[in-house]
Amino acid sequence: MIKIPATWMRGGTSKCWVFEWDSLQVPGKTVDEVLLRLFGSPDNRQIDGVGGGTSTTSKAVILSRSITDEADVDYTFAQVGIEEQRVDWGSNCGNCSAVVAPYAIQRGWVATGQESTAVRALNTNTDQLILQKVATLGGALPDSGDQMIPGVPFPGLAVGMGFFDPAGKTTGKLFPTGDPMDKVAFDGRQVPATLIDAGAPVIVLEAEAVGLTGHETAAEIDSRADLLVHLDDVRRDAAVRMGLARSRADAERAIPKLALVAKADDDDDADVVVRMLSMGRLHPALAITGSVALTMAAQHEGTVVADLITGDAASGVNLRTPAGLVQTWSETRDGTPVVGALRSARRLADAELLLPDVW
Asked: N or C: which end of the chain has fewer CB within 10 A?
């Protein structure tokens, strides 16, 4: 039996197992093989592993001290397939990113400040530098926090996260096709779409264009098998057009993500209503990288998002999700654009995962 140390953490609205790179090195096995067996995939229940059977609970964060001067921690995200025997390495998870600073501080990888500690995390999937700030009053990381966020019923440590110059980290361009608005085929007809790469690659559709209001619940969308098939067709076509895959069949399950947007009600504090799909199902709240993409889309004229917003999005936007209001912020530091949001994180357990000698 092979013993692999790991920490189970909640980051934002996701749960992830946190590993250090050296711990996943098993002779004769790839890291993909190790992760799939640890999580119990492929199996829709992941019954013989530590996966949670959903896209938001089948995630791995792999950390190490950074080998570069620009960062303190190198952070790699893995979306572990559930029914598929596959690990997606193509994108970052902004929610899981929130665990990096608390973990690094707990491990003593960074010196703590007397009031707060800043951790520079380099996401290796997207080459994205993320600045994270955590309160460390008296130079110590607190065991718990009181930060509430939409989609999580309990508080956690507040983690401020800013994505430095997030445009084009995966494809090289903010708008990979060169245009803020494209046409894509949905169920045999052409509908407007914005294909954007900021934080992560995302395709944005107006909910009304695909026969929805944008206010649907997860059950209402997830029960529409025909709708999900058509939306995944659009997503796979977008992957090819964005240069993320050579063919529709080669498209990853995790990227690009797909967001449905609609106008907010007149009495709502939100600028826009969002329903985001992740791994073929409705996200219970909103991927943080998705919120970065939507914020930058709102700031550029001619996008699906900008066309729905009447106010000024230069300093950030308010996004109405199934779980509540997500607020983003945008600023410039030393001439570099930074887009961010406030998340929370909590350490759930320290564990020793057992891997069979033969599988």
From this structure: N
Give per-residue pLDDT as tens, 3-38: 999 999 999 999 999 999 999 999 999 999 999 999
Reading the block at residue 284, the tokens are 């219970």
* Residue pLDDT, tens place only, 287-336: 888 999 999 999 999 999 999 998 899 999 999 999 999 999 998 888 88
DSSP code, position 138: G
Q: Which of 103, 109, 46, 106 is nearest to 72 (CA)?
A: 109
The two tokens of residue 164 are 């430095």
User: How many residues can be counted in the chain?
Assistant: 359
Q: Please give the domain boundaries of the chain with CATH numbers for all domains.
A: 2-165+343-355 (3.10.310.10), 182-331 (3.10.310.10)
Which DSSP string corresponds to 226-248? Answer: HHHHHHHHHHHHHHHHTTS-SSG
- ∠ CA 339-344-349 to the nearest 5 degrees? 135
d(CA 157, CA 301): 36
